[in-house]
Amino acid sequence: MLRLCLRSLESHSSLPHQIVLHINQGDDGTLEWARSRERLAFTASPVNTGVSHALNAARSLARAQYLVFFNDDMYACPGWDTALWKEIERIGHNRFMLSSTMIEPRDTGNPCVIVADHGKTLEEFREEELLREFPLPGKEDWQGSTWPPNLLHRDLWDLVGGMSTEYFPGFYSDPDLSMKLWNTGVRLFKGLGASRVYHFGSRTTSRVKHRSGRRTFAGKWGMTSGVFTRHYLRRGTPWNGPLPEPEQPLLARLRNLLESKL
User: What are the Cα distances from residue 15, in Å, to 79, 111, 207, 213, 247?
Assistant: First the structure.
């Protein structure tokens, strides 16, 4: 799956990119494979250190002004990067977070994704079918960028200290990063309908014991992740400009109080 992800980036990117890979454990031959690849920058950890440590480590090798975070179970569709770059040029400043739109084979009720089954596993993947059909159906831009692939300027990343490692192995670390950006005054969290990736949605994290990211988030920020993404980021609603200050209903405030005390 990692090889497919990298091949899609190399084949379907219109702009030059530095690809930095983090190998988590890598005891299946991945580390040796990466060493054999010329011009592939990578970091590695001998044990599972989680996605937050992985992204922080990869950041240490990144040279570009803008950072994009991909999962290895994603396939970049043609035009994914040009849509992001056009949006960067249109915005004209660097205080934002952008996300590509994921195409997923399962309907999980996520309003930010396009549901289209082109294979649920690597063995079932129908690549030619995806490349023929991925521009359809249409998808408008949406509020609440927090899902990968996401993009932000390295200065913002460094300002908030990157990803927070207390969410091991990574659950709720995405909205945590958005919350840290929100607290610096960022109000532009935009998902682009024209930038698309296919997301298989692997389930490797189900094998890992971890503490509740939901409770960690609530204890850290004094509100639940659901309240933040619904009332602050308005995730999945149609894009209509930079986000206003939120108005939390009474029930949301009570939920925040309860969750932060657990």
Answer: 10, 29, 37, 36, 40
Residue 38 has pLDDT above 90, yes or no: no
* CA gap 243, 190 in Å, rounded: 10
Half-sphere exposure (CA, 13 Å, Cβ side) for 37?
16
- Paired strand residues for 191: 99, 142
With 80 as the cut, is the pLDDT of residue 203 above it? no
- Distance of alpha carbon 101 from alpha carbon 238, whole angstroms: 13
Could you state, in order of their start, the residue ranges of all structural domains in the chain? 66-261
Query: How far, in Å, CA of 224 to CA of 219, rounded?
Result: 8
Q: How far is CA 253 from the centre of its chain?
A: 27
Q: Which two tokens stand for residue 46?
A: 């001998």
CATH number of 66-261: 3.90.550
Q: Which residues contact residue 118 at a Cβ distance below 8 angstroms, ignoring those fewer than 6 apart?
A: 103, 105, 125, 126, 127, 129, 130, 133, 198
Report residue 39's pLDDT band, with 50, 70 and 90 as the boundaries.
Answer: confident
Global confidence as pTM: 0.90
- The closest of 69, 67, 37, 73 to 54, measured between CA atoms, is 69
**Cα 163 to Cα 220: distance, rounded to the nearest angstrom:** 14
In the structure encoding, which two tokens stand for residue 244, read together?
């206003």
Pairing verdict, β 74-76 and 189-199: antiparallel
